[in-house]
Structures are given as C-alpha cells and as structure tokens.
Amino acid sequence: MDNIDVGYPIGEVGQAWGKAERDEWLSRQVRQRSYETDVLGAIDPLRSRFDVTEYGRLDYAQGSFSLFAVRTRDWQDDLPVTLVTGGVHGYETSGVHGALRFAEQHMGDYAGRANILVAPCISPWAYERIQRWNPDAIDPNRSFQENSPSGESAALMRLVAPLRGRFLMHIDLHETTDSDETEFRRALAARDGKVFEPGEIPDGFYLVDDAENPQPAFQQSVLAAVSQLTHIAPADAKGEIIGSPVVAPGVIEYALKKLGLCASITAARYTTTTEVYPDSPRATPEQCIQAQVAAARAAIDYALAHG
Q1: How far, in whole angstroms, is CA 235 from its chain's centroid?
Q2: Residue 271 — φ and ψ, nearest 5°?
Q3: Do residues 25 and 17 lie in contact, with contact meaning Cβ atoms separated by under 8 Å?
Q4: Which three-class secondary structure state does DSSP give residue 171?
Q5: Which domains can be identified in the chain, with CATH numbers?
Q6: CA distances, 178 to each of 100, 103, 126, 181, 240 (Å)
Q7: pTM of the predicted model, to two decimals?
Q8: Tens of pLDDT along 6-25?
Q9: What are the tens digits of pLDDT across the range 234-251?
Q10: 178 — phi, psi (to 5°)?
Q11: Based on the number of CB atoms within 10 Å of its own CB, is 281 exposed (0-12), middle (13-18) or buried (19 or more)?
Q12: Does 3 have pLDDT greater than 60?
C-alpha cells in the first residue's frame, strides 16, 4: 500500500464521493475567463451571415449561461447535414476556438452544398473555470444518453434530435492535455472511489473513431490535412494511445454510444473526435486552433465527396 499514489486532495482512497466531497470540489473551482467575452463576443459578428439559435440555458448557482448554435442561413432540406461541436470539455480551449474559427472563416464556403450546424461551446461554466466537469462533478462527455444527468449534454441532444438520421458527418473537437494526468484523471479516480493509476499523455494529434462504425479512410483523410499543421501522435511502447490500441497511425477506437460520448448523438455515417496536444513543445495554441479548423474542413470535404 505504501506505493499507491493517492492522487487527489479530496475524499478517501476507495470511497466514492458524497455530497460533502462534491461541495468541497465545487468550492475550489475559480472563474478564470469569460464565456461572454470569448465565445458570445465571437458569435455575435456571425449573425449577419448565419442563423444563430439559442438552444438551451444552464442555470447554476455560479451563473446562468445561454447556449448558442450557428447554422447555415439558407438551409435546404435536400442537402446533407453536418455538425461541428466544441467545448464539451470546457477546458479544451482549441476545440471552442477551432469551432468558432471554422464558422467565421469557412462555413460559408459550403453554401449550397451542405447544411452546417456548429455548437462551439457546449459547457460554458467549465469553459470559464478551465474544468472538465460541470458544477455537479459530472463529465458531459460520458453523459450523452437518455435522461442525461448533464444539462449540457441534454441541451445538445435536444438540438440535434429533429435532424437525427439526416446527419452525414459529425466532428467533435477536443484536446488531450497534461492536466488530464495531473488533475482530471486523478479527480475522476477520487470521485469514483478508485485508486489513480498513472498513464501517458500522447505527444501530438490523434483521432477517435467509432468502434461500432469504423470509417478508416475518413479518419486518414482528416489526419492527412492536420499533418500539414502539426504532428500526429505516435503509439506508446504498448502500441496504444491513452490505453487504447492504435488501429492505424494516429487513430484509436471507442464504442461511442455505449460510453455516452458526444460523437454518438447524430447517427451520422462519418464521425470522429479530434484530440490535439496543446502542451507539446512542438505546438503552439494557434497551431492547435488551426489543426481543429483543418480537421473540420477535411471531415466535411470527405463526407461530401463520398456521400
């Protein structure tokens, strides 16, 4: 027992959190940036070219947040529908700003070819606190399921529900950071009464395909575009990335629906989750944003070309 890494200052090893521990965790969360300034301030200029929809509202003791999506203005029912999401984990900065940058610079390029829906910041409370969970210590990206306990997840599911079955592609923009290992995985183990087991953070960009609907050519097309901007993560000594077997260079697979992950919500033929590594000495924050934009463009291009 002496070699166990207790790993987190809240709770006791082997005992899942109760209300007291969750309240203590919440008391430690500090607002560090502004959703209104960073996200809503970037959405407002898009209103002249696209439709902006308020698709939900989150009311927390620490503040209320309106949730917005940007969509093609001249929506045509005979065109395929594609979805770009970011900020499911609020701390994953390039996912939010990559989605916003894509909408600003490239969404208009697909007019008359595709209907595009962009939800750039699904978890605004977590965005402001650079946090993975919502205030209830729930991970939205394990909560995309019926009767979701996460308001963030439930709101997005309501947004896409009328279009389910019409989506051709969904790309969900994420990051893997050093804080996954130093903070968030430790907190997860503590919350669930488990012992933290150290892992390895991959250095570079990678994708998560759907194990139940793998689309390897689609994944490789996205990676090819991103590789022009930043490096692709290699497998570790076990042939894995974050504990999952590498099925192709830069690609792992998850059972998206079973795990309640965001990329499962549309039933699209083509789905992927991006993971950039902003803490790499070989990448800058701007490169990470550009990689997310390139991934979104490549994903839509491939989907439209291959139907």
Answers
A1: 21
A2: -135, 150
A3: yes
A4: strand
A5: 19-306 (3.40.630.10)
A6: 24, 28, 17, 6, 17
A7: 0.97
A8: 579 999 989 999 999 999 99
A9: 999 999 999 999 999 999
A10: -60, -30
A11: exposed
A12: no
